[in-house]
Design brief:
Elements: E1 3-8, E2 19-23, E3 28-33, E4 39-46, H1 60-67, H2 77-85, E5 91-95, E6 100-107, H3 111-124, H4 129-147, H5 150-163, H6 177-181, H7 185-195, E7 201-207, H8 211-222, E8 250-255, E9 262-269, H9 278-289, H10 291-304, E10 308-315, E11 323-330, H11 335-352, H12 356-373, H13 377-389, H14 396-405, H15 409-419, E12 426-431
Parallel strand pairs: 3-7, 8-12
Antiparallel strand pairs: 1-2, 2-3, 4-6, 4-7, 5-6, 9-11, 9-12, 10-11
Amino acid sequence: MSLVQVEIAAPVTRGLEPVRGVLENGATIVAKESRATPAVTVHASLRAGTVYDPPAVAGLSHFVSRTVDRGTAGRSADDIAELLDSRGVSLTVMVNRHAMSLVSTCLVEDYPVVMSLVAEILRSATFPDIEVETKRGEIVTLIRQDEDNPATVAAEGLMSMLYGSDHPYGRPTRGTVDSVHHIDAAALRAFHASRFRPHLLSLVVVGDLASNRAIDVAAEVLAEWKADVVAPAHEDFSWLAVPETPAARRVRVVPMMSKAQADIAYGFTSITRSDPAFFVYTLMNNILGQYSIGGRLGDSIRERQGMAYYVSSGMDASVIPGPLMIRAGVSPDNVPRAVASIDEELNRMAADGPTDDELAESRQYLIGSMPRNLETNLGIASYLQMMEFFGLGLDYDLRVPGLLRAVTLEQVHAAARRALDTSRAGIVVAGPFDGTLA
């Protein structure tokens, strides 16, 4: 199959320099030559994440991720395992809110065979009944474990609080025991047919071969995958509801009295990935709960007060405003004090903003961590997938340092005032605590 579009990054200084091509069937291929090791990483990502679960069938995408590699029109699960094992290769399937990914790293000489297998799974997974029933039991076990894990209960509870239990962001990724029991092979095949299409595929290949060669091999094995629709370059996500800003603080306690530790999830909705203030918020979050020993939160709650086993913050800006979530694990006796300390640090950041030193050190940390995150083929492939999903451009890695350096102290302070309103926070506590919180 011929390429209908090819883009090559033309950086001023050397960066990743990926090559991007679009096939006639709409599939996108991004390749990056990396001579660090004699290996190739194949990272195939489809817009088939949990947001595409029908409202009444929560967990469908996750179920597909557990069964999609268990047989194709031409191979059984044992055949697939034998092909991979004979080459010392593994195939990992992952799913998040927006994407399902098949990832494999192999020797250069095995790349055509592995690429062919990945393409076969993408096109013709069959979901045999016996494999579906085996995986159903495994998934139910995972859900039961999640229901017994205070950290997971708190985090999923906060997502439901922020977005609503019927919102794709607010539903549990794996679904419920009841929803999983109602998913059959026909439902898995229908999801595969609707979401595993060439125009929904972003394929990234990183490794010890020329980018053009990587694209040619992939294009050849994807040639038989025919497109039945013409789709825009980037999906319109206007169908995903944006949650309203809450009028007041919300608190939920989930008593799990047999546990030893209480877990706190505290947060807000933040911004979209396309927001011009993305790097402002990134620096604010890093200062608050990531840099060094966990930012201000880690320094105060864990180091100086000794209250938390762990504490950190994370921001997941996406196609709609994503969560800014603070998570902490504490002794049940320390839950009220820990929540009060989180309030105090957020109020202080909103009132005073960061210091010059905090901004400079956090900025340098984020810039300096980029090379470390791109040391492996998988790290590069994951980064390129993120760039492709959000449409950031082939030279994005070169622009990031300048975008971070352009952020001012005043901008971070203004972001903190907008984002860190403790009177509108959502808080979920799960564990051996049944008290009340303000």
